[in-house]
Amino acid sequence: MRIIAGTFRSRTLEAPAGLATRPTSDRLRETLFNVLAPRIQGATFLDLYAGSGAVGMEALSRGARAVTYVERAPAALSVLRANLAKLGITTGFRIQPGSVGAYLRRQEAGQKPGREAGQKPAPPTAFDLVFLDPPYDAAQEYAATLNLLGASQAGLLAPGALVIAEHRRKERLEERYGSLERTRLLEQGDASLSFYAASETIAAE
Q: The domain 49-166+173-204: what is its CATH number?
Protein backbone atom coordinates (compact mmCIF):
# COMPACT_ATOMS: atom_id res chain seq x y z
CA MET A 1 0.00 0.00 0.00
CA ARG A 2 1.04 3.58 -0.57
CA ILE A 3 -0.25 7.11 -0.06
CA ILE A 4 -1.68 8.25 -3.40
CA ALA A 5 -1.35 12.05 -3.21
CA GLY A 6 -0.61 15.03 -1.01
CA THR A 7 2.06 15.66 1.61
CA PHE A 8 2.97 11.97 1.99
CA ARG A 9 2.57 11.02 -1.66
CA SER A 10 4.15 7.66 -2.66
CA ARG A 11 5.12 6.78 0.94
CA THR A 12 4.49 3.10 1.60
CA LEU A 13 2.37 1.65 4.41
CA GLU A 14 2.20 -1.69 6.17
CA ALA A 15 -0.92 -3.88 6.36
CA PRO A 16 -1.87 -6.25 9.20
CA ALA A 17 -0.96 -9.87 8.53
CA GLY A 18 -3.69 -12.41 7.77
CA LEU A 19 -7.16 -12.07 6.32
CA ALA A 20 -9.03 -10.58 9.29
CA THR A 21 -8.27 -7.04 8.06
CA ARG A 22 -8.76 -6.21 4.38
CA PRO A 23 -7.13 -2.91 3.44
CA THR A 24 -8.84 -0.68 0.89
CA SER A 25 -6.91 -1.07 -2.37
CA ASP A 26 -4.82 1.82 -3.67
CA ARG A 27 -7.02 2.04 -6.75
CA LEU A 28 -10.27 2.20 -4.79
CA ARG A 29 -8.76 4.71 -2.35
CA GLU A 30 -7.78 6.90 -5.30
CA THR A 31 -11.35 6.72 -6.64
CA LEU A 32 -12.73 7.62 -3.21
CA PHE A 33 -10.52 10.66 -2.78
CA ASN A 34 -11.13 11.87 -6.32
CA VAL A 35 -14.77 12.20 -5.27
CA LEU A 36 -13.91 13.76 -1.91
CA ALA A 37 -11.34 16.22 -3.32
CA PRO A 38 -13.61 19.32 -3.06
CA ARG A 39 -14.41 18.48 0.59
CA ILE A 40 -11.18 17.19 2.10
CA GLN A 41 -9.23 20.40 2.82
CA GLY A 42 -9.73 21.31 6.47
CA ALA A 43 -12.26 18.51 7.04
CA THR A 44 -12.73 16.44 10.18
CA PHE A 45 -12.57 12.77 9.16
CA LEU A 46 -13.82 9.68 11.00
CA ASP A 47 -12.18 6.40 9.92
CA LEU A 48 -14.28 3.51 11.28
CA TYR A 49 -12.91 -0.06 11.27
CA ALA A 50 -9.65 1.73 10.51
CA GLY A 51 -7.37 -1.29 10.10
CA SER A 52 -3.96 -0.09 8.91
CA GLY A 53 -5.18 3.53 8.96
CA ALA A 54 -4.43 4.02 5.25
CA VAL A 55 -7.70 5.84 4.46
CA GLY A 56 -7.34 8.29 7.33
CA MET A 57 -3.68 8.88 6.50
CA GLU A 58 -4.62 9.60 2.90
CA ALA A 59 -7.08 12.17 4.27
CA LEU A 60 -4.37 13.79 6.38
CA SER A 61 -1.98 13.78 3.44
CA ARG A 62 -4.56 15.64 1.35
CA GLY A 63 -5.25 18.35 3.92
CA ALA A 64 -7.82 17.03 6.38
CA ARG A 65 -7.68 19.01 9.63
CA ALA A 66 -8.10 16.01 11.94
CA VAL A 67 -8.73 12.27 11.74
CA THR A 68 -10.22 9.98 14.36
CA TYR A 69 -9.47 6.26 13.98
CA VAL A 70 -11.71 3.60 15.54
CA GLU A 71 -10.36 0.03 15.57
CA ARG A 72 -10.57 -2.83 18.05
CA ALA A 73 -8.15 -5.50 16.71
CA PRO A 74 -4.83 -5.33 18.60
CA ALA A 75 -2.80 -6.37 15.53
CA ALA A 76 -4.40 -3.68 13.37
CA LEU A 77 -3.92 -1.05 16.08
CA SER A 78 -0.24 -1.92 16.28
CA VAL A 79 0.18 -1.51 12.50
CA LEU A 80 -1.87 1.72 12.51
CA ARG A 81 0.39 3.29 15.14
CA ALA A 82 3.49 2.06 13.29
CA ASN A 83 2.27 3.61 10.03
CA LEU A 84 1.65 6.96 11.71
CA ALA A 85 5.14 6.84 13.19
CA LYS A 86 6.62 5.83 9.84
CA LEU A 87 5.09 8.91 8.21
CA GLY A 88 6.15 11.13 11.10
CA ILE A 89 2.56 12.08 11.93
CA THR A 90 2.41 13.19 15.57
CA THR A 91 -0.59 15.55 15.63
CA GLY A 92 -4.00 15.90 14.00
CA PHE A 93 -5.31 12.47 14.94
CA ARG A 94 -6.93 10.48 17.72
CA ILE A 95 -7.04 6.71 18.08
CA GLN A 96 -10.08 5.16 19.76
CA PRO A 97 -9.38 1.50 20.61
CA GLY A 98 -12.56 -0.57 20.83
CA SER A 99 -15.63 -1.45 18.83
CA VAL A 100 -17.28 0.98 16.45
CA GLY A 101 -20.71 0.41 18.01
CA ALA A 102 -19.44 1.24 21.50
CA TYR A 103 -17.71 4.39 20.25
CA LEU A 104 -20.80 5.66 18.41
CA ARG A 105 -23.13 4.93 21.32
CA ARG A 106 -20.75 6.67 23.70
CA GLN A 107 -20.67 9.71 21.43
CA GLU A 108 -24.44 9.69 21.14
CA ALA A 109 -24.68 9.67 24.92
CA GLY A 110 -22.41 12.72 25.04
CA GLN A 111 -19.58 10.99 26.90
CA LYS A 112 -16.00 11.87 26.13
CA PRO A 113 -14.27 8.76 24.75
CA GLY A 114 -10.94 7.45 25.97
CA ARG A 115 -7.77 8.55 24.22
CA GLU A 116 -4.28 7.32 23.56
CA ALA A 117 -1.67 7.97 26.25
CA GLY A 118 -0.04 11.33 25.72
CA GLN A 119 -2.85 12.73 23.60
CA LYS A 120 -4.51 15.89 24.81
CA PRO A 121 -8.23 15.74 25.59
CA ALA A 122 -10.53 17.17 22.95
CA PRO A 123 -14.20 18.10 22.92
CA PRO A 124 -16.65 15.85 21.05
CA THR A 125 -16.30 16.34 17.31
CA ALA A 126 -18.88 16.72 14.57
CA PHE A 127 -17.40 15.02 11.50
CA ASP A 128 -17.51 16.30 7.94
CA LEU A 129 -16.59 12.94 6.41
CA VAL A 130 -17.12 9.42 7.75
CA PHE A 131 -15.66 6.30 6.13
CA LEU A 132 -16.58 2.78 7.20
CA ASP A 133 -15.12 -0.46 5.95
CA PRO A 134 -16.21 -3.38 8.18
CA PRO A 135 -15.01 -6.91 7.42
CA TYR A 136 -17.00 -8.00 4.37
CA ASP A 137 -18.27 -11.08 6.21
CA ALA A 138 -19.68 -8.96 9.06
CA ALA A 139 -22.71 -7.82 7.07
CA GLN A 140 -24.64 -6.91 10.22
CA GLU A 141 -22.06 -4.22 10.99
CA TYR A 142 -23.15 -2.12 8.01
CA ALA A 143 -26.77 -1.76 9.12
CA ALA A 144 -25.87 -1.31 12.79
CA THR A 145 -23.29 1.40 12.10
CA LEU A 146 -25.23 3.26 9.42
CA ASN A 147 -28.36 3.24 11.58
CA LEU A 148 -26.40 4.72 14.49
CA LEU A 149 -24.95 7.41 12.22
CA GLY A 150 -28.36 8.11 10.74
CA ALA A 151 -30.06 8.51 14.10
CA SER A 152 -31.25 12.11 14.42
CA GLN A 153 -29.93 12.36 17.98
CA ALA A 154 -26.45 11.03 17.18
CA GLY A 155 -24.93 14.50 16.76
CA LEU A 156 -21.80 13.09 15.14
CA LEU A 157 -22.33 14.57 11.70
CA ALA A 158 -21.56 18.17 10.81
CA PRO A 159 -23.96 20.04 8.49
CA GLY A 160 -23.48 18.75 4.95
CA ALA A 161 -21.55 15.67 6.15
CA LEU A 162 -20.96 12.71 3.88
CA VAL A 163 -20.84 9.06 4.98
CA ILE A 164 -19.13 6.51 2.74
CA ALA A 165 -19.35 2.72 3.11
CA GLU A 166 -17.07 0.30 1.29
CA HIS A 167 -18.72 -3.07 0.66
CA ARG A 168 -18.83 -6.05 -1.66
CA ARG A 169 -20.26 -5.22 -5.07
CA LYS A 170 -22.73 -8.10 -4.81
CA GLU A 171 -23.89 -6.96 -1.36
CA ARG A 172 -26.46 -4.24 -1.78
CA LEU A 173 -26.90 -1.80 1.07
CA GLU A 174 -30.19 -0.06 1.80
CA GLU A 175 -31.05 3.25 0.18
CA ARG A 176 -31.78 4.82 3.57
CA TYR A 177 -30.64 4.41 7.18
CA GLY A 178 -32.47 6.82 9.46
CA SER A 179 -31.75 10.32 8.18
CA LEU A 180 -29.04 9.06 5.81
CA GLU A 181 -30.00 8.63 2.16
CA ARG A 182 -27.75 7.16 -0.51
CA THR A 183 -26.77 9.73 -3.11
CA ARG A 184 -24.19 7.82 -5.14
CA LEU A 185 -22.96 4.28 -5.80
CA LEU A 186 -19.54 3.63 -7.36
CA GLU A 187 -18.50 0.12 -8.39
CA GLN A 188 -14.93 -0.99 -9.05
CA GLY A 189 -13.99 -4.62 -9.48
CA ASP A 190 -15.52 -6.65 -6.65
CA ALA A 191 -15.92 -3.60 -4.41
CA SER A 192 -18.42 -0.76 -4.19
CA LEU A 193 -18.60 2.61 -2.46
CA SER A 194 -21.99 3.82 -1.24
CA PHE A 195 -22.20 7.55 -0.45
CA TYR A 196 -24.83 8.78 2.03
CA ALA A 197 -25.92 12.26 3.07
CA ALA A 198 -28.48 13.42 5.62
CA SER A 199 -31.90 13.84 4.03
CA GLU A 200 -32.19 17.42 5.30
CA THR A 201 -28.91 18.22 3.53
CA ILE A 202 -30.22 16.73 0.30
CA ALA A 203 -33.45 18.72 0.59
CA ALA A 204 -31.50 21.95 1.02
CA GLU A 205 -29.42 21.40 -2.14
A: 3.40.50.150
